[in-house]
Write a structure and sequence with these properties.
The protein is of the alpha+beta class and 155 residues long. It has three helices and six strands.
Length: 155
């Protein structure tokens, strides 16, 4: 009976002590320029080019190669400068993996450079730690250690 109570109490403590899983937010930093286009061009634009005709994310290729469009920027302004903010839904796991691995880039096209005026690799700024996962793992290891000690003493 004591053993069942100890297991139930430990399980309850782990359940109450752990935080619910949450989404991990990763921030990316992208600098765009004509020199990063493949092939490179001499556009002096940066961050925003001439009147944009298209913009999107390409993935999953090396930084010196061209890849397929995987995420179109819907509603991208056809201006010479500005800010674009969007939340993308329905992105495939393979695309997310490619972005996280640094194998994706943003490309903005215009009439003068239809293959892409400016381009920038998508690189993570810094990883976001998951303290809840580490705490739960440590609690589980501690519980295993306690159970192992009790078994050793019982023998």
């Amino acid at each position: 009976m004591k053993r069942v109570f100890a297991i139930a109490a430990s399980s309850l403590a782990l359940l109450l002590g752990s935080a619910p899983a949450g989404a991990v937010i990763v921030t990316y930093n992208v600098s765009l320029s004509g020199l990063q286009s493949v092939p490179a061009n001499l556009s002096t634009a940066f961050g925003a080019g001439g009147v944009a005709t298209a913009a999107h994310i390409h993935c999953c290729v090396a930084t010196n190669a061209n890849g397929p469009v995987v995420i179109p920027f819907t509603g991208f302004p056809s201006l010479t400068s500005g800010t674009y903010i969007n939340t993308f839904a329905g992105v495939s796991a393979a695309t997310i993996t490619g972005i996280e691995a640094g194998l994706a880039y943003i490309n903005i096209h215009n009439a003068v450079f239809p293959a892409g005026e400016i381009r920038g690799d998508i690189l993570a700024v810094s990883p976001v730690p998951e303290p809840e996962s580490a705490a739960l793992m440590l609690a589980g290891l501690a519980l295993l250690g306690v159970c192992g000690r009790r078994r050793a003493r019982a023998r």
